[in-house]
Here is the input.
Amino acid sequence: MTPTSLASSLADLDIHGLRRRRRVLDTPQGVRVRVDGADYLSFSSNDYLGLANHPALAAAAQAAIAEAGVGAGAAHLLTGHHRLHHQAEEELAACVGLPAALLFSTGYMANLGVIPALLDRHDEVFEDRLNHASLVDAAVLSRAKLTRYPHCDLQTLERQLAASTAQTKLIASDTVFSMDGDLAPLAGLMDLAERFDAWLYLDDAHGFGVLDARPHSVSPRLIYMATLGKAAGVAGAFVAGSADLIEWLVNRARTYIYTTAQPPLLAAAVSASLRLMAAEGWRREHLNTLIAQLKVGVADLPWSLMPSDTPIQPLVVGGNHDALRLAEGLKQRGILIPAIRPPTVPEGTARLRISLSAAHSEAEVQQLLTALRDLARG
Here is the structure.
């Protein structure tokens, strides 16, 4: 693309209803927000447990500033690895029942760091067709052969693994698929990894803190990644696995080695978040109540929810402009939900991605259902 073609290319995005624009948030993240100067009831964040603005996390971060300052000031392998980072890594490993863990700046950086650290052009990566873009980019960056299998299709994956002559094989999958909200067949994936001597890389960005945090297996071939900016309410990500795996990543994961460590205050907030998640199981229970309420409430509407038992509840509309109009109708009624369109989702499946939070009340979910019924009547 040349500089002179940018304007026409942007205009083409407008024609097809595909242009994205950023919104400006004027409040802390929560279910009641001020965006672009207007107040909304929001179903548009990944703050699944309602912890992003929790006072305990803020207090932990403030106390850490007094102890450790703001910036880390150096990479982890120089002088940036603070005691608060180390403590959070130990707590995260214990939380998911694996021997060791390593903090990364983001989930994207974790995926880009781990897969190229383990694979090269002699190897092969097998990925679910609906995996997050960062897993696909990581495979490309590794120079290994990238093989995609149809969504959650274990039979096809088995045939692909059996046909592979790669020195090292790695299966990579989201655990909760971010746009559909459905779950990967984890037990089947681990069985295939064991049978074909492959790594199993699980990206649990949208499951950590909401579903059972402990993987189904503690096999040394398991690599578990989760982000800390969604249910945990903070920022960053971690990778957990065997002690040897983590030691190798410390020495070979370029996105860990060649970047400044996150501020220690974030690690302190993560530790506070883990304590809350362990102590306040009511948050997950309330989420399940809201999910059930929403499913019953939309049953008679012209749009259908995709099958999901997670806080991600995609309401499929179909056309890009139809999804935008429905989102705009809700916005005019004081409710904020993003319209998700291609290439994020397949053509013809534009949707409203309803994200529920433990901070929502049943009355607020009912407010959404009432607005959808009004819009369905035209």
Residues 329 and 375 are 7 Å apart (CA to CA).
